[in-house]
Amino acid sequence: MAEKKRDSPPKPKESYPLFSLSNHYHQLGLGFGSGSGLFASSAKPLSPLPPPVEVLSSEESCPKTSHPEPVVINVEVTLLKGRVSTFDVFGVANSDLVPGKYEGGLKLWEGSLDLVRTLWTEIQQGQLSIIGKRVLELGCGHGLPGIFTCIEGASAIHFQDFNSEVLKCLTIPNVNVNLDSFKKKNSNVKDIKTSQSPEIRFFAGDWSNMHDLLFQNCDHDGTEKDSGMNSTRGTYDGYDIVLMAETVYELSSLPNLYSLIKKCLCYPHGVVYMAGKKHYFGVGGGTRQFQLFVEEDGVMDACLIAEVADGSSNVREVWKFSFK
Description:
Elements: E1 53-55, E2 69-72, E3 78-81, H1 86-90, H2 110-124, E4 134-138, H3 144-151, E5 156-161, H4 164-185, E6 199-204, H5 211-214, E7 241-245, H6 254-264, E8 271-277, H7 287-297, E9 300-308, E10 316-323
Parallel strand pairs: 4-5, 4-7, 5-6, 7-8
Antiparallel strand pairs: 1-6, 2-3, 8-10, 9-10
Helix pairs in contact: 3-4
């Protein structure tokens, strides 16, 4: 799911708990090179994680209190989102996070909208084509970036969130209501981008073991491939585009996140779009921390493509990563 965080330094009437995704309980250092580095860690898991699972569209369970609301991306794009509370889904008071139970996916964070706007701009400027691409949205929550790629003609869109409840009660209903709305608006248009139904799937679980379900590292003949990216092994089928918004707030989760990306991203032409806050006060992460992580690994190039300083939170950024 999309692991969430606070926007700005503490104010007298607010508190900023040092919460974390379940990765906090099993910090995993990738150990590039000598096994040391910015994010290397020797901590061991304190408790086993549940296995990742696929959530079927038929498992949709939308609370009665949820009503789709329009979200204006720009003058050209408006999407719909549901409004679901943690009480409706988890039976607890409204909160950005309930440690060990809920990881923030029911809230629509600014980075998600920043990411959709950036994707639209990239398409308009000829820097990105979605048509026929395989897309993965990590920490999807509302799933608006992934939904946007559905509308733009992606051939496959897979949504991942830590909580299966978020997928059932929010993501799946959001996908359905947006695609139904798009089809109705374009019912008389002959050449629409989604003329063929895309493959849409939903996956719940932790980043540390999600690759076992998301992507099998095998050739079409069943031969096992090496996990991760190796510049000498040639191409393989993976995701053409990986999207993530507000997923880099905590340092201890970054190794698992980056490892998953390298295992699933199509080599050598795959691209990652990441939106988030430059720094997350009180929890230590941020887009610049992830950028440093990527640079230390030396496998990918990083490019800052958008910066947002609108006063609603601290500075937000959108980055693009691609293989060297």
